[in-house]
Amino acid sequence: MIGKVTLVGAGPGDPGLLTVKGREALLEAQVVVYDRLVSPAVLSLMPENAEKINVGKEASHHLVPQEQINRLLLNKALEGKRVVRLKGGDPFLFGRGGEELELLTEHGVSFEEVPGITSAIAVPAYGGIPVTHREFTSSLHIITGHARAGKPLEIDFEALVRTRGTLVFLMGVTSLPDICAGLLEAGMNADMPAAIVEQGTTPRQRRFNATVGTLAQTATEQAVTSPAISIVGPVCALAEKFDWFDALPLKGKKIVVTRPRERSGTLAGRLSKLGADVYEYPCIRTEPIIPCPEMEAALNRLGDYTHLVLTSPAGVEALWGMLEREGKDARALSGVTLAAIGPGTDRELRKHGLRADYIPAVYDAAHLGAGLAGMVSGRVLILRAELGSPALTEALERGKIPYDDIHCYTTAYESEHAAALRTLIREDKVDIVTFTSASTVRGFAHSVGEDLDFSRVLGACIGEQTAAEARWYGIRTRVAAQATMDALIDIIIKEGNETWN
Ligand code: SAH
């Protein structure tokens, strides 16, 4: 059977700008052939077992020749694979998408093209520049500023100037002086508004406003590098007024999200939407203890307990795994009162048709313990990690409540990206590190290395206990007003308003 090739436009950088159809194709791919300008967040959608082939390795500046890419697509399709060719922006706009289809048609291989949001329009948009505007211009021209090796630019500047349209130049950082000179020689007014946007639609986006007369010099002074887009035309004057992206509250702030590998999704996503340059650092990994004879025994005599206490979603997962292995379901817990440390744990319970009967007003171990001590009359079963906080059991002991504290999952420190993060912190490139539990503080501190000067780190902590752990390592802290993601994000924005602007 012959496979199929789908050319997919990945959009300009912001992962939210991948189309729904492009995402579907990617999720179903068996082979993904991608290049340099595709963002890591889009690449992370590639199915785990798909074969991933990078044909635009940046480090060595060694690009795979086009001819070889064409053959690769053909061969993989002939092997019967569902191939996705993922390209930055739109595949057909200066993307050689057409060339890649030639060989496929010659061999009768079927293909589809999923257009992408092109940087030519989206990057100006994120720079506050609408490419057309009725009062300023009635046409848009997209031009490559790339010259063939050793040759002058093949641009008809006079024709361009005559159009009075908006001019968008791609691939033109090195030839910018020639482009501007060409426009001026063709009679464009030196005061014509112009702008250059580097790494558009990403948190690292930088936009500089200038005029045709000053644009090349501005780009040099600001050390603008590729990828960047230059825009020439009266619409550039609107950039300051419509500058919505740079105005996002966390725009460009480097925020490290330390969470267990499985759970960084929501916080990281929300910070990104606020413009942050999120660095996900999964520093601990939780794994259920299997087999777990203590938990098994406790569940078999659940009648001995009045309360079952869970202090994390990972604990709920471990519990549920055991019930499943035993061929049981939620009804096995019907006789016992369920207590959860906070809404995250409760949410995990709800996934399984259960809900917490009790959640303390402040979501930490001490308040959970104190709350239970005030209401429990029987025996308490705690299912949690080996390194659980002593504050919970201490509170129960003070209340003379009998309990069994059973460890049903382990937490391991991860260090895959530790060296890279350590360098960023040493170079003061990290604005803030988020901590959502004391165990993530430990995971962070142990994995990045305790020889690091932790006073360089500003930690946004979800609660007092987490903050206490952070201070113990010498980390400077800000504490959320409540132990919720909303409050954590609020404290980060507040910090931003007070010290970063
Ligand atoms: N097919 C792509 C363009 C490929 S040519 C598209 O439709 O967007 C590559 C050029 O696109 C770069 O040299 C740069 O000029 C521009 N470009 C792509 N992504 C960009 C980004 N995020 N910011 C600024 N320019 C970008």
TrEMBL record:
Molecular-function annotations in GO: uroporphyrin-III C-methyltransferase activity; uroporphyrinogen-III synthase activity
Gene3D superfamilies associated with the record: 3.40.50.10090, Cobalt-precorrin-4 Transmethylase, Domain 1, Methyltransferase, Cobalt-precorrin-4 Transmethylase, Domain 2
Alphabetical keyword list: Lyase, Methyltransferase, Porphyrin biosynthesis, S-adenosyl-L-methionine, Transferase
Signal peptide feature range: none
All copies of domain Tetrapyrrole biosynthesis uroporphyrinogen III synthase, residue ranges: 267-489
GO biological-process terms attached to the record: methylation; siroheme biosynthetic process
SUPFAM superfamilies reported for this sequence: HemD-like, Tetrapyrrole methylase
Name of the top EC class for this enzyme: transferase
EC number(s) reported in the record: 2.1.1.107
InterPro entries linked: 4pyrrol_Mease, 4pyrrol_Methylase_sf, 4pyrrol_syn_uPrphyn_synt_sf, 4pyrrol_synth_uPrphyn_synth, 4pyrrole_Mease_sub1, 4pyrrole_Mease_sub2, CobA/CysG_C, Siro_Cobalamin_biosynth
Residue span(s) of domain Tetrapyrrole methylase: 4-215
PANTHER family given in the database record: S-ADENOSYL-L-METHIONINE-DEPENDENT UROPORPHYRINOGEN III METHYLTRANSFERASE, CHLOROPLASTIC, SIROHEME SYNTHASE-RELATED
Cited NCBIfam families: cobA_cysG_Cterm (TIGR01469), PRK06136.1 (NF004790)
Protein name: uroporphyrinogen-III C-methyltransferase
Species in which this protein is naturally found: Intestinimonas butyriciproducens
